[in-house]
Specification:
alpha/beta, Aspartate Aminotransferase, domain 2, 7-stranded mixed sheet, 4-stranded antiparallel sheet, 13 helices, 14% strand
Length: 469
């Protein structure tokens, strides 16, 4: 591909992207293909000679696009959003064109220095105090793994990485059953073992772990010869928005000298609105905090903000410094590859800079406030319908509900059938969870382009599909 072709196809791809985003309301939200249908259109072996861009682009539209679920669709109400605001998309186009590997300060000084500034901008936006430093991880899963590894090393007096875990006392990590499964994976990868992840029962409408049970578990483990290492607290858990009492948990962590990591991957974006910060009161006492600007804030995936109070502990846990990675003659620089598990790093800070410069905090606050208000309005409409019940009330813009099954029909099966009918209909996209052992349907408003009509229109779709069962 020569320079002229590169220019022509870059422009065509950019134009296609704008047209694609403009067409989303006319497309079904979830892919309507059957398993294997897309694979059947792809050749069994790679071509010996290139087909050229025209053929590749044509087949992309004909064969690949039909199998895509449209995460930027304004009626995507499933999981949590993976927003890509237009300004963020443009920033990613620039990042892709430069194709820099930003593992060290010297491999792109601007990437490192902008990352430092952007994490401080986000810290201020969230109301976190000075003293927190930040790094951009690819996802909250990576941030949680880094936190768990740091918990482990600190509790073992930094012996785990050197000696291995075989001859050291087992460490214990504490959380509720509302945390994301990334915590389980972090425990596995860190070599701690699933049996040493202690789940504390939850109570109340916020589904928070009981501080008394947490303290009792820590004391019992200490007496039994385990080494309590840390606590993972949740703010806005994936299932129904489970949120721990961070202040109470932080007091226990401080009393027992445990590392406290707060996972606010989704809900953290809402903390740019001061009126929502009561949900994580006490967060300033945490050792680390993670939230994903790529969920609700509008930064294109992947982009996870990981704040730490003691970056030296994180670096001591993760950094390896062979001679070929040293930057000679430069003192006081940050190499962010020492703050994360992967060595390689993308230039993720640029999309945050564009996002905040273009929309400003007030523009982003307005979006989040609207989503919360519209979701509450929809929940209220469902609640007064005698054919439905609200299972968990809105936590920010997330709530769950059920349709009342006819007599003699299994309620769980009935609601799973309803969910499948809704998603096959194509107008909206929802997902399921289990609450107290029974199926509930999740609704979460968060798409960057969604409107009040999109959110409230979901009620009509849900009613229509329930009526057709």
């Amino acid at each position: 591909m020569d320079e002229d072709e590169f220019r022509r196809w870059s422009r065509r791809a950019a134009d296609w992207g704008v047209d694609y985003r403009a067409s989303l309301r006319d497309r079904p939200v979830r892919a309507q293909t059957k398993p294997g249908e897309i694979a059947a259109t792809i050749a069994a072996a790679p071509p010996e000679r290139g087909d050229g861009m025209e053929a590749a682009f044509r087949d992309f539209e004909a064969d690949i696009l039909p199998g895509m679920t449209h995460w930027q669709h304004p009626r995507f109400f499933a999981y949590f959003p993976a927003n890509a605001a237009p300004a963020s998309v443009v920033a990613e186009q620039l990042v892709t064109a430069m194709a820099a590997q930003c593992m060290l300060w010297q491999t792109s000084p601007a990437a490192t220095e902008l990352e430092t500034k952007m994490l401080d901008w986000l810290r201020q936006a969230l109301g976190l105090p000075e003293g927190f430093s930040g790094v951009i991880q690819d996802s909250a899963s990576s941030a949680t793994l880094a936190a768990v590894l740091t918990m482990r090393e600190r509790a073992l007096a930094w012996r785990g990485n050197v000696e291995g875990l075989a001859n050291l006392p087992p460490v214990r990590i504490y959380c509720s059953d509302q945390v994301h499964t990334s915590v389980d994976r972090a425990i596995w990868v860190a070599g701690i073992g699933a049996q040493n992840l202690v789940r504390i029962p939850v109570t109340g409408h916020m589904r928070a772990m009981d501080p008394k049970d947490l303290e009792a578990a820590i004391r019992a483990d200490t007496q039994d010869g385990f080494v309590p290492a840390g606590i993972v607290a949740s703010v806005g858990g994936t299932s129904v928005g489970g949120t721990d009492d961070i202040e109470a948990v932080a007091e226990i962590a401080r009393r027992h000298r445990l590392y406290l990591h707060v996972d606010a991957a989704w809900a953290g974006s809402a903390m740019i609105c001061p009126e929502f910060r009561h949900f994580w009161a006490g967060v300033e006492q945490a050792d680390s905090v993670v939230f994903n600007p790529h969920k609700w804030l509008g930064a294109q995936f992947d982009c996870s903000a990981h704040f730490v109070r003691a970056p030296e502990d994180l670096v001591r846990t993760l950094a390896i410094r062979p001679d070929y990675l040293l930057t000679h003659g430069r003192d006081g620089i940050i190499n962010y590859s020492e703050w994360s598990v992967p060595l390689g790093r993308r230039f993720r800070a640029l999309k945050i800079w564009f996002l905040l410069r273009v929309y400003g905090l007030e523009g982003l606050r307005a979006m989040i406030r609207n989503h919360v208000a519209w979701s509450a309005e929809l929940a209220g409409r469902i609640e007064v319908d005698p054919d439905f019940e609200i299972v968990t009330r809105p936590m920010l813009s997330l709530f769950t509900f059920r349709h009342r099954a006819p007599a003699g029909v299994d309620a769980d099966r009935h609601n799973l059938d309803l969910l499948e009918a809704i998603n096959d209909d194509g107008r909206i996209y929802l997902t399921q969870t289990r609450v107290d052992g029974h199926v509930a349907i999740r609704f979460q408003a968060g798409s960057f382009e969604t409107t009040r009509d999109d959110v409230l229109g979901a009620y009509d779709v849900i009613r229509d599909c329930a009526g057709r069962l």
